[in-house]
Amino acid sequence: MTFYIKPPEGNVSLSSLYQYAETRLLFLSQVHQRWGDDDQVRRITTDHPSIRSNSECLIEGSRKDRMSHFVLRLATLGNEQFRTFFIEAETLLFEHRLQCGGEPVIINGISDFKRHIHFALKYMRLTTSHHTFILQVQKTLNDILRAGMVACTMKETCHHFIKVPWTMVESLVKERSVAVNASEVVITCQTLLLLLYEIFKTTLEFGIKQLSLCGAEDLVSDTRIRQVKKNIIRVFIKHQGGSHLILSSKRLCHTDIENEVPYFPLCMQELHKILSSTSRLRHHARIRYTLFLKDIGLPVMENIAFWENFYCKPHLGHSAGCCHTWEGNDRKRYTYGIRHLYGIEGGRKNYTSHSCTSLQALLPQPLETGGCPYASYDEAELSLLLNPILKDHLQLQNIIMKEVKAGRPNAACKIVLAFTLFIHKEHGRKRCKKKDMQHLEDAKDKRHYTYNLSNAESCNTSNLTLKKEGSVSEPVGKTHCQVIHDLESLSKNMTKNNNEVSLKPEISSCNDKEFRHSGLITKSTTVNDSACIKHCSVNGECFPSSSSVNTPARSCNGVKNDLQVLLCDIEDLKDILPKCNVSRPSQYYLKARG
């Protein structure tokens, strides 16, 4: 269990340095691709003679191991794509080593880590945040040993625990994997390994940031090191499927795909739609979709599980489509095919996903789904695909159709991506606004309001009370429009008690069939349109009845209000469009997902 705090020392030839780094990169690439299948991860050196012949640089804690790690760390400078891959793959390797090594590896690793922490605090230049983190880790390691958590043999039933600041394990808190109490996280024997994974990842991130503090840019400017870095990046691009690759910060699960479909480009949405309706895809379409899922971050075992989920179901399409199932020899054939696309089987070639150019060049074939809808579909077919996305944005749809007719499918797809980003941005603003409004409502709920209505001439009831819990006792036999009238009268006859403030009734959208009064919602079975129009004219506006961004909302008298959802046009997208250049469907998804 090595945390790679202390840099290596000594002399080494340039060729050996590059060989160590290249071998480690190939190994990390295989770990990243095979993750989720422990047997396949263990077989990496068996399947790859080039890695096996130079595996000395992979012996944990050795001088060559640290050399190969720090050379790759140096190569991350100025390359965000490689940096993301390096942090994720090294964390996976650390996790694999920890799971295979067991208790002795953890004890020895903690001992070495404490010694290297002492070296870092004494000799290394650290930022304030890095120094604080190192001190927290030092205290945490002492607490782990003192609590006897490493040597615990009854991890499921023991009562050992330590407390660490929640900032040390932010991702675990976000995933609800640990309990938080007064800004501290409780770590038990069951979650000890998760803590060590997070410490390693954060240590590595701080280590990469520290490179700029110790003058690493000057080292990279050296001709020899610059050539080594260039070769490393070339190998990375080759073995990760091409320069188009943009790794997702989130590792997807096969159960996540259904929720991610709205972020897919139209070509992949169409493939998923056919797969969902028939539980099958024909051969070439299946390959295209598999490679797309691979590129957006779906590991090989999750990709296999995704297809198994559909191919275990009965075939729902016409008889001319694919009728194979996930049983018998078909199961082995499909599994082999997916692993082959990941470079694990056969010739071990790491296949790339299809580019937009190649998809646009595909001609529609009988019973075979076409490539790019903007290039191969007619106007009626394309409109059916765009309507659920654009809805009432007719201007944008007309512009997209003009681009398609002009033979510019990339430009059409670019507009749809920009629209998607715009809508998600608006959703984010609305969530923030809704959250602020909720805070105000919560503040109001803490007060106690009591309203008394004594005007018997305006209402046929002697009393209408709004309780602290926000419930209204509604008179039996009254219509809802009468209740509205009562509430209007109520607002004029409120009495202020105990520094209470007077509130006007809030009227919701007539289309929503709801009426609101100070946070109260009363469902209505019938609505009188004339009463609604009268009430809207009195109060000036209605609130939008739908939370949909694409549905235009108007008050009952036809006047737009300030809270209405905005319909965007091409002018609203002019600042977003330059950022929407993509050459592959996977790039589209990763940009849309943000």
UniProtKB/TrEMBL annotation:
Q: Which GO terms describe its molecular function?
A: 4 iron, 4 sulfur cluster binding; metal ion binding
Gene Ontology CC annotations of this record? alpha DNA polymerase:primase complex
The residues covered by the DNA primase large subunit C-terminal domain are 263-435
Its Gene Ontology biological processes? DNA replication initiation; DNA replication, synthesis of primer
Q: What is this protein called?
A: DNA primase large subunit C-terminal domain-containing protein
- Which cofactor does this sequence's record say it needs? [4Fe-4S] cluster
Q: Which UniProt keywords apply?
A: 4Fe-4S, DNA replication, Iron, Iron-sulfur, Metal-binding, Primosome
UniProt xrefs under InterPro entries? DNA_primase_C, DNA_primase_lsu_euk/arc
Native source species: Cherax quadricarinatus (Australian red claw crayfish)
Report whether 4Fe-4S shows up as a keyword of the record: yes
